[in-house]
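User: I'm curious whether this sequence folds into something compact or stays loose and floppy. Could you predict its structure so I can see for myself?
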Amino acid sequence: MGRLVAVSLLGISLALLGERFLALRNRLKASRELESIDLPNCHLIKGIEAGSEDIDILPNGLAFFSVGLKFPGFHSLTPDKPGGILMMDLKEEKPRALELRISRGFNFASFNPHGISTFIDDEFKNTVEIFKYIEEDNSLLHIKTIEHELLPSVNDLVAVGPTHFYATNDHYFSDTFLKYLETYLNLHWANVIYYSPNEVKVVAEGFDSASGISISPDEKYIYVADILAHEIHVFEKHPSMNLTQLKVLKLDTLVDNLSTDPSSGDIWVGCHSNGQKLFVYDPNNPPSSEVLRIQNILTEKPTVTTVYANNGSVLQGSSVATVYDGKLLIGTLYHRALYCEL
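Assistant: Here's the prediction. I'll summarize afterward.
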């Protein structure tokens, strides 16, 4: 009798694991392939060879790139090189990417940037690093390291003040094995945190894997990408900094980082059409790149347009897209970066 029970439990366990495996393949869009959509005036950015996972642009045209992300299970073209921050002046006739020097005392050897956000102030493990950009010598002054128990697995953030921000946790755990286990089991434990020096709190939760985050130009709405659920969540921001969900936009791709065009309010999204290729890297069948533009997201029927799509022959694993004055920048998890004139 005991043996029969053991065999039955084993069968149930295997069936559950098989169902979870099939569900994970569906969440990763493992069978989805892209038809290429090219842009005419594009070139790869010199000096970015191993990823530009996130990009943020100031109103004056200075674009900042977080580069060199190392993520367990992902391919890396430069496994021994620490991450860094690059800057490009998009107002120049032929802009080029420059690596910014970081002030002494910062632990540069362990720097692994994942997400970047900028905030303009007239005065001025999983951690959030705050830097001040020194324009005179193109350097970064390290101001502060922020650690908190509610920030176990920070993926992206959007600044709403000098030391105030919203951040996404893409996992509940910080341990690598437990991260993959909760992804496999689809536990929906990821969340969004509001951080300030005086208050830290959960403001949204129940995500499969909360990834990119952005804010509307009028700062009334927060947009959050749930990468494995293929969704963008729209939240209303209140004076208390709490968030109320207004709607969910479902898409047929893995949505990564979000960027909002300050002039139009359009949302630009770096996407992965087949997430399985990110984990099982094959140079002969590399991850593709996909960029979506979402117009009028607050309306009942937003317009979703695929602006760029490539099978990996030019760009692999696009994670972010952002625009400035007719220029489009597309960054990747661990590959190159693309500069386009729209």
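Summary: The first helix runs from residue 2 to 27. Residues 5 and 11 are 10 Å apart (CA to CA).
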